[in-house]
Amino acid sequence: MTESWATFGADLHLDLSAGRGLRAGLVEALREAARSGRLAPGTRLPSSRSFAADLGIARNTVAEAYAELVAEGWLTARQGSGTRVAERARPRRPAAAARVRHPARRRPSYSLQAGTPDLGGFPRAAWLTAARRALTDAPNEAFGYAADARGRVELREALAGYLARARGVCADPERIVLCAGFAHALTLLAGVLRARRVREAAVEGYGLDVHRDLLTRAGLRTRPLAVDASGARTPDLSGESGAVLLTPAHQFPTGVALTPSRRAAAVDWARTTGGLILEDDYDGEFRYDRQSVGALQGLDPDRVVYLGTASKSLAPGLRMGWMVVPPGMLDEVVAMKGPTDWTSSALEQLTLAEFIRSGAYDRHVRGMRLHYRRRRDELVAAVSGRVAVSGLAAGLHAVLDLPAGTQASVLRAAAWQDLALDTLSRYAHPEAGLPEREALVVGYGTPPTSAWSPTLAALVAALP
Ligand SMILES: Cc1ncc(COP(=O)(O)O)c(C=O)c1O
Question: 299 C-alpha to center of ligand 1: Å?
Answer without folding.
Answer: 23
